[in-house]
Design a protein that fits this description.
heterodimer; A: Alpha-Beta Plaits; 19% strand; B: 182 residues; alpha+beta; Muramoyl-pentapeptide Carboxypeptidase, domain 2; 5 helices; globular
């Protein structure tokens, strides 16, 4: 069962996730000017919202995380040594 | 980086036990192939325009027909999809999907049956990410063709796939089967 956690301190209330989600999982909370989850059962964990969120304010828990074989491990290793 | 040359003896053997590479070699090979595929896809689009989609779709469809030849023929769409899931394997891992308000995975629309498929692991998507190409391009049509070809082979009827949504972790597609389209 998917669970979505919104970091309200980080959310800037831009509404990008509300517009981008194909299943209308999010809505704007007009009083707080933050996004809120309204249709959790319809989330298919495509993670388009993650990609579009400028504040990285959301976390999806207990989902199928797709393989990322495109990541170059040697580059990652080199970056880890620098950062 | 210095490339180490490996020398050994090569004997004729029926079933080779060694592949002559480790995980790093596989990774390098995969990434080179991803770059080749991405480069081919964008070049094809540049030369053929929108016709690139049709070419790649046809290639995928041929692959789908070939892969599904060994599969058991059925008229049950859900059973066919389960079988296809086994053939496509983990690199094109998909599941049936329905919105929370819908009772069953399949819906009947006239003489058509519609089912939504959620592709979670997809080598095509990873290739596009590796090469910085957008989703929904010609390369995506390879998988659409593959699915349609496999469905046509297993069920002996016409089918089509449409993209509903593409995302970095999963893509939602609609498979439509036309019963009268034999």
């Amino acid at each position: 069962m998917v669970n979505i956690v919104i970091d309200e301190d980080a959310c800037v209330g831009c509404g990008s996730c509300v517009e981008d989600c194909p299943n209308d999982v999010y809505e704007m909370d007009e009083t707080k000017n933050k996004t809120k989850v309204v249709k959790l059962d319809d989330c298919m964990a495509c993670l388009s919202c993650h990609e579009i969120c400028p504040a990285q304010a959301m976390e999806h828990q207990d989902i199928h995380v797709a393989k990322r074989l495109y990541i170059d491990r040697k580059v990652n290793y080199a970056l880890e040594r620098i950062i | 980086m210095e490339i180490e040359e490996i020398k050994g003896t090569f004997k004729p053997e029926l079933i080779p036990k060694e592949t002559g590479g480790d995980l790093d070699d596989y990774e390098d090979a995969l990434h080179v192939l991803m770059k080749f595929m991405g480069s081919m896809s964008s070049a094809l689009e540049q030369v053929s325009g929108r016709g690139a989609n049709a070419i790649v779709y046809q290639a995928g469809k041929r692959m789908g027909h070939e892969s599904a030849k060994m599969m058991e023929k059925t008229e049950n769409l859900e059973q066919a999809l389960d079988e296809m899931g086994d053939v496509l394997g983990h690199e094109f891992y998909f599941e049936k999907w329905k919105p929370s308000g819908q009772s069953s995975y399949t819906t009947q629309e006239g003489d058509q049956v519609v089912i939504k498929l959620l592709f979670m692991d997809c080598v095509v998507r990873q290739t596009l990410r590796r090469t910085g190409l957008p989703q929904k391009g010609p390369l995506c049509y390879l998988l659409y063709g593959y699915m349609v070809g496999a469905v046509e082979e297993v069920m002996d009827i016409k089918g089509k796939i449409d993209i509903d949504h593409v995302g970095p972790n999963a893509c939602l597609k609609t498979l439509t089967i036309k019963w009268s389209g034999k």
